[in-house]
Structures are given as C-alpha cells and as structure tokens.
Amino acid sequence: MLGCKPISVPLNQNGKLSANVGEVLEDATMYKKIVGSLIYMTITRPDLNYTVGLESQFM
Amino acid sequence: MRHTLRYVNATTDYGLFYEASIELQVYGYIDADWAGSISDRRSTSGFMFSFGSATVTWSSKKQPTVALSSTEAEYRGAAMAACEVVWLRKLLGDLGLHVDRHVVIYCDNLSSIQLGRNLVFHAQTKHIEVHYHFIREKVLACEIDLTYVNTKDQVADIFTKVLGAKKHRRFCNMLGVMELELSLRGSVEMSSSTRADIHDVPQ
What we know:
The complex is a heterodimer. Chain A is mainly α. Chain A is 36% helix and 0% strand. The radius of gyration of chain A is 12 Å and the shape is globular. Chain A starts with 27 loop residues before the first helix and ends with a helix. The mean pLDDT of chain A is 86. Chain B is α/β, with parallel strands linked by helices. Chain B has one domain (8-199): Nucleotidyltransferase, domain 5, CATH 3.30.420. In chain B, strand 3 (44-51) and strand 4 (54-62) form a beta hairpin. The longest helix of chain B has 25 residues, at 70-94. Chain B starts with a helix and ends with a helix.
C-alpha cells in the first residue's frame, strides 16, 4: 500500500459498485481483511465512513 | 478498493482536530440519498453532529426499508438524527454541559422540514411508520430545530454519496478532518538495562 499513487478522493465518482457484474475475487479473505482494517479507521475518520460502508456491502 | 487504499495512503496524517478556544455549540447536518443502492433501491442516510470545532458523532447507514420518496428518505434520516440528539443532550448533561437551546439540524429537503414542523401532505405520508414521527415530537418540545441549508453546504453529503475532489476536501474541512502535525507514529526503544529489568522479575 505504501508504494501506491496517492489520490484525493476515497472512491471514483463515476464508478458503480455492483455485486453481480465483474470477476469473482481470487482472494476474498484479503478483501474482508482490508475492509476490516478500514472499518477500524472510520472510528477516527468520518471522511471514509460512507466509502467503507459501501465496500463492506460486497462481501 | 484500490482507490480507497490510495486515498488512505495519501491521507495517513489526517484526523479530527478539536480546538481548545472555541465556543461550544451543538449543531448537526442530515442528508439522505434516495434510492441510491442500485441492487435494492434502498436509500442511504447520513448525519453528523458537531460540538466545538469538529464533529463528535456521525453515521452513514443504508436504511432498512425502501423509501417511496426523497422526502420519506430524508425524514427517516432526520428521525435517526433526532434519536442521536436526545442521547447527545443527555450525555452532555451528564458531563455538566447543559444545552439550553434547541439543537439546530440542517437539512436540504424543504418538505421534510415542513413535515417535521407540522403534519402536512397528510395523504402522501400516511404510510410512514408512526415512530418516524418522533422528530415532530422533538420539534414541538423545542429540543430540535430543523433548518434549511443549501445542498452545496450540506456536509452530511459526504456520508451519503461519492463526491468530487473539491467538494470532498471542503466537507472534510467542515467536519474538522485535517492534516495533523502531531503524529502518533513512532516506537519505544528499550535500552538493554530496562529489558533486563523486565526479564529479571524480583523474587
């Protein structure tokens, strides 16, 4: 994560998340782990609250 | 997800900043995104309450039922916020800070404000469950005041939809989320003597 390019918004405004379209993730556990960590972040970061809530709907 | 992690990476030093010398006043924002979910068309509502310079309590929640109109979605969100106000007033009272005046909640939906003040559009709102009219009771009791705010200043937007970079930055500032100079990063270095002390527990 430290090597990735920084960006100013937590989610792409034009992108739509969908449960039925797209490929199934190879490593679903990793996704869940990351979401878990992000949920921990929302305790002190209200700016991430909506994004993380949205992402956790696709597990 | 990758996008979010990139954002987190860019903003690791962000946090809520509570200023010491500022008038302590409670006010809140409430917003709802009607039928925002593409899979089941439920609405998302969000609210935040600010005390002093930054927000103290906030929520972003997908509503459990489908709302038939944007008014209904906002009204339900407002009822949730009203519950929070009741709790917040009690908590502050316990801490010795009595809120004498009503708590102003900013909302960008005029019809739900009217609905909160008085039961108008009776025919259109018959289906709204009774407990959602909780907010009217609180408005009548002068605990809450619903006030209109333009959508562009609606901070609670950040809890209901994805925003552009400029708006996101501005709302972050309004929430009190900012770059903090203080960093919690660091480590404790133990010298060999202290380490020895830990292991050699005195008998």
